[in-house]
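Write out structure tokens for UDP-N-acetylmuramoyl-tripeptide--D-alanyl-D-alanine ligase.
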Amino acid sequence: MITLSCAEIASLLNGQLIGDNHSVSDVSTDSRTISAGALFIALKGPNFDGSRFVADVMAKGAAAIVVDRPLDCDISQIVVADTRVALGQLGAAVKARLQPKTIAVTGSAGKTTVKEMLAAILCRCGQVLATQGNFNNDIGVPLTLLRLTAEHQFAVMELGANHAGEIAYTTSLVKPDVAIITNAAASHLEGFGDTYGVARAKGEIFSGVADSGIAIMQHDSEFTDYWRNRCKRLKIISFESDFKNDSREASSADIRAERITLNSQGCARFTLVYQNEQVLVQLSLPGKHNVANALAAAAAAIAVGANLSDVQLGLAQMAGVKGRTNIIELNKNIKLIDDSYNANVESVKAAIDLLASYQGYRVLLLGDMAELGANARLYHEEIGLYAKEAGINLLFTLGVLSQSASDLFNGQGSHFSSRQSMLDRLLPLITTQQNVTLLVKGSRSAKMELVVQDLLERCQQESSPC
């Protein structure tokens, strides 16, 4: 973060400074990890009050605190009306002062991958700040903005949401030059109601883009016309996302992929075409769905100054994202694809398509998909049928809702209540098959990363059938 005085911060937040005018260059909302000399913002919610931990941050050497009422303690205080709003104001102020070229990304699936692709491309052009982990909500976004320094030429911000209005708020802080919607699908339906509610919420990202900015969206989505109507004042760049019919006529998308092939690891190679230029791209991430993600990232990177060579080399050299289609060789016969980070209907179907592209015996280990509302069981049934029609050989499910997927896939007998029982049944089965590929998928609440961990541990044991 840039260095600011407490008096400057109080002015930016329309607050009152009580105490000494220290300078701070770090901000934290977490009393457990705060560093000496930092500013502590005491967030307050229905079930917590950060001001309870002021003694802790004082003991760790915090320079000042932001609170919603004066406290009886010996530390500089900035008193504001709402500390949560103050956090957003401060993040927005730092971003406005530094003015890096900024790209905001949202969508039901693929937004983290697009964000990482963008960071890989743009790091060839200058210093990049990108969202870390799940810092994509009304708390994480301003905390990310506060990490900006004068050295950053680019900021790549991931914006998530589980209710209407959240992206409108975070976009108002970020004020991006370029905004991307990867897609809209059944996700967080408890907060959005239906997929149209999801599309409306994702479309909020265009509200904070300046009139000279750029909107990037699917060319072939059922919501494209709606999004176009929301951002008529912006330049629109469309990318192709439906590659199931490669024999059809060339797409009219502004940026598109031609001659897509998959290598033995499931990673796509294709010709990227943009305006009158084209370049051969080899992705380092498996899955045909990542072609669309690459096109969205390429369009945004070019919009802020990258060239096709930067796109080509950045995508080829991009490192994998933990829990997102990471390929692990358990042994010479068994391959594990760890896609356990999160799941919704769209991303699970993309994972099934990836699994189906592999030769040999294909097994899907599926945990519950969360926040799908009243039709959650129907969505899980849809996934079970999709996996069956894709030719997946075996579906094992874990959780509660996912049993509906196993019922539609293969009747009873492939649903489990514990990881232990699932793996006890799985491992003897796969050792009798040749060329096995396992794919692990589920929402965060399903904790399917523990299944990945169990598989790795079992296969490291000498007595394991792996």
